[in-house]
Amino acid sequence: MASGEERYQEFAPPPALRPFVRVLWTYAAPGPTPTIQRIAPDGCPELVFDIGAPYAEQGEDGAFHLQPSALFAGQMTRPLAMKPTGPTELVSVRFEPDGARDFLGRPLNEATDRRLNMVERLAGFDPPKGDPAGQAAAFVAWLTHQKQHENWTIDPMVRAEIDEAAAEQPAPPRSPGEQRALQRRFADRVGVSPRLLRSIFRFRRVFDHAAQPDGETEGWLAAGLEAGYFDQPQMARDFRRFLGCTATDWAREQQALARAIASQTYKPAGPHAA
């Protein structure tokens, strides 16, 4: 990475971690603009390790507070507003929607819309600075060690519902009792309801279809229709719900990490191999 150059890179997990981990990603910005970044829900919990200056997150009181250098970000149902405080360098593990339950060791609904401090758990973790591939490999080695000492499992019923939602397939008919049982399993293994996860997936598909999120209303509307929205007002409600602004406002204002995640992570193309 050249001096002052922003970079974002993704790495696929090895087969042993693939049922639980969707992707590993790294990001660095030696001179980030100190503006607020709006991060939308994506249906996946994350484990984030901050090598550079910490981000500041906006709390419910409206004030910005420094995040810990290592954190677990549970499922999000509302936008996350944060801003850099200095040179940024991150390495992160994006779990599958239901892939972090046994890593976390507690129901995922206890982490929904929360960032849990993981500094103690990652004590001694020291990924190499300025080396994206080395950072991803370090996290793979650390996670593999964790998995070997814990019993990580996948609930087949929950995973089947997630796969159907991701493939835009309708949910199969269920009795009220079966639906309540699935709701309980989702609260434990995912952290949000099946219905809300489907809404989040649909919202993220807007960015898949928006090849160049440049703020043009017509482009966003076409992307929303491709993603499964009925009309522009329906999509606009979800932009307010999940990003706290309009599509054109987001495209005009967002840069750095928020734009990198939206424009690269959710595209159909696969990640680089680790």
Automatic annotation (TrEMBL):
<feature type="domain" description="HTH araC/xylS-type">
    <location>
        <begin position="179"/>
        <end position="253"/>
    </location>
</feature>
<protein>
    <submittedName>
        <fullName>AraC family transcriptional regulator</fullName>
    </submittedName>
</protein>
<dbReference type="InterPro" id="IPR046532">
    <property type="entry name" value="DUF6597"/>
</dbReference>
<dbReference type="Pfam" id="PF20240">
    <property type="entry name" value="DUF6597"/>
</dbReference>
<dbReference type="InterPro" id="IPR018060">
    <property type="entry name" value="HTH_AraC"/>
</dbReference>
